[in-house]
Amino acid sequence: MPSYVVTGATRGLGLAFVKQLSADSQNTVFAIVRNKSTATHLTALSRNNIVVLEADVTDAKALNLAAAEVSESTGGTLDYLINNAGGSTMLGLTATDPTPEAIEEDLLQNFKWNTISAVHSTNAFLPLLKEGTTKKVACITSGFGGLDVTLQTGSAAQFSYSVAKAALNMVVAKYAVELKPEGFVFLALSPGMADTSSTAVSPMSDKMMAQVHEIMSMALKHFPDFKGPITPEESARMQLEVIHQWKVEDSGAFVSHFGNNKRWL
Description:
It comes from Mycena metata. This is NAD(P)-binding protein. Keywords: NADP. InterPro entries: NAD(P)-bd_dom_sf, Sc_DH/Rdtase_CS, SDR_enzymes, SDR_fam. Pfam families: adh_short. By secondary structure, this protein is an alpha/beta fold. It has one domain (3-256): NAD(P)-binding Rossmann-like Domain (Rossmann fold, 3-Layer(aba) Sandwich), CATH 3.40.50.720. Helix content is 46%, strand content 13%. It has 8 helices and 7 strands. Strands 3-2-1-4-5-6-7 form a 7-stranded parallel β-sheet, sandwiched between helices. α1 (12-22) links the parallel β1 (3-7) and β2. α1 (12-22) crosses α8 (232-245) and α3 (60-74) packs parallel to α4.
């Protein structure tokens, strides 16, 4: 039975990953959430092959405890790790923001959520992955973390988030280089633009809505094939196809849900 760990499984893409993977009764899916009491969409699935575990992905000790629970359940192995958890402060800062304290705070928070958390999670589950049959780790990143996308679109939006995701892409490359001889497959995977509003905790603020409209305008202008946001379910399906087909020889790549670095939306 293939085993999967999905972080950030409470809602959005993480929830969509769990839904699709658990639809196959042969899979065992460990859903990592920060707070079980708020994971109502997840618990409503009521599937026997879903195990909900509580851990804040910025807390290495909590992740190690979660890994111990997974190990107890699987006999010390794990096949797939999907580092989906992440976030953005959505403050609208740019690199030239006049308040250095605000920039530093925003950068550190985004690094903690999007970069450091993936390192903690990967290291916590690495011993189990080494005993697994697949040895695959997918880190959900963003097209905003790509230099080419930024330069092509001319977008200065999402400064701290973009920098943190670019760092995550390098994290993936470093793990890939170190662990490729052991047969590991690491992948930095952009999910495209998915509409996760249906499972959002609270409605977007006016500032967040303005940023979304800016991003949408940019997408329509620079990506002619873009038809608008896709559902989390569609994004998760496409990403899982990429994850399952990715090979050791291509470990460390940064690609979109289309499986390439040419089309991001």
